[in-house]
Amino acid sequence: MLKRVFCAALLALPLLAEVKLPAIISDHMVLQRGIPVKIWGWAEAGESVTVQFAGQTVTGMTQPDGKWGVWLAPLNAGASGELTIAGKNTLKVQDVLVGEVWVGSGQSNMQWTVQRSMNPEQEARNANYPQIRLFRVPLKTSESPESDVQAKWEVCAPETIPQFSAVLYFFGRSLHKHMNVPFGLIQTAYGGTPAQAWTSKEALAGDAALVPILGEWTKALDRFPEGMEKYHAAMAQWEKNGAKGPRPGRPLGPGHAHQPSGLYNAMVHPLLPYGIKGAIWYQGESNASKVQAPLYKRLFEVMIQDWREKWGQGDFPFLWVQLANFAKAGSPEDWVLVQEAQTQTTELKRTGQAVINDIGDPVDIHPTNKQDVGARLALAARHYAYGEQLVYSGPRYRMVTAEGPTTGDRGAKLRVWFESVGGGLQARGGGALKGFELAGPDGVWQAADARVDGPTVVVSSATVANPRAVRYAWAANPDCNLINAEGLPAGVFRGSLR
């Protein structure tokens, strides 16, 4: 017995001594230009590891926990090269590019593939971009933070793009064509998941405002045993019926993708601290519920700040897509509250939003026009990440003021002021503005007339004698049409006189 143990230990020694790398540091990767870049991995404690790339040579020592890491000085965008890592063994990472790296995360609309989007055959056929690289994190949840994923970098080509995130690809393609530098795109998205699943445990636990969301999960765990009994019974019946109809869904509980922090642990933490330029996000559908929608602004802010802290790169650009118009939303009011919360979250530094209430599908929560979504996010990136002075969003509500006759007169109006008016405000397709409502002191909303007046919109209603508040696009599938001359739409808002 002792002999077998000794032999097994001897066989394990070479494995313990091997220098190993995380999956994200591998052939075809893109390193972020212009910032210090960390290269890390594992080796035997006390082992010296040397990294060579682009004329730089840096050495680090493996810590007692088996981890090592070194920093490369900021790199310039350029052609491919070889990265060498040497300890007791030597690894060579081939075809490494230096350029821009972006993470794309969220739920199904970010996970939605090029193959399932508009014009899939044409898009795949034209996807010959050897300087765009793709990294797709597998769907997984975990109770604790993990250190690696099973994935690899791939070169963007007609064969590799069909199963990749459409929004992330169209975003990266737009910027790549505009900037002519390499782009690395990291997809880490999981359909049907809430924002709390993408946030670390310490961040969630550290904010008292999020207690109701965590409380919902505690209740789900309490119901889990009974739920599993019903699930097994439903599965048995489903199989007895020849697996016809929808497959029964597992109840919320351990290992479920809704588990708070579960996706952060398995699909974000292993990427840290890979150098990035920023992140794009498309999510919110799974938080559009009675308890969670009113808390979404705080939850979203906590998640963004959590990612920024964990990445250690300061306030990197974080851009997202506002929920699209969707007539079949289970709770229209909660859908709008999430949209409003997304807009309010732009109060955080270096955050931006793409509004798409004009290109959603009223009867499908997964609109296939992901090309325009990616292009609008790219406009925001050009401003927030790359400092371009351009019109990157539709009209944004700034404030409302009283206008017209004295208070109490049925001719009283409100004037709504906007930012990002670009070449001017207008109605999409011409005609009258739609989507505006007014309310008086009684809080009852009435449809209102609206007209453009320079960088403002004047709103009035014959049925509201003393207007005190205005709102726009306040519906899950609003009939609204305010845009700027650049064709970008205004998003949902509400405001009142001070």
Task: Explain how this protein is built.
The strands form 5 sheets. Strands 1, 3, 4, 6, 7, 8, 9, 10, 11, 12 and 13 form an 11-stranded mixed sheet that branches. Strands 14-15-20-19 form a 4-stranded antiparallel sheet, with no helix packed on it. The protein has a 4-stranded antiparallel sheet with strand order 18-17-21-23, with no helix packed on it. Helix 4 crosses helix 10. It has a domain of 101 residues: Immunoglobulin-like, CATH 2.60.40. It contains 10 helices and 23 strands. The protein has 498 residues and is an alpha/beta fold. Strand 11, helix 8 and strand 12 form a beta-alpha-beta unit.
First-to-last CA distance: 82 Å
Task: Decide which structural class fits the backbone.
Answer: alpha/beta
What count of helical segments does DSSP give? 10
For the biggest sheet, the summary is: 11 strands, mixed
Shape: globular
Question: Could you tell me the mean pLDDT?
Answer: 94
Which stretches are poorly predicted, pLDDT < 50 over at least 5 residues?
1-15
Q: Write down the CATH topology of the domain at 396-496.
A: Immunoglobulin-like
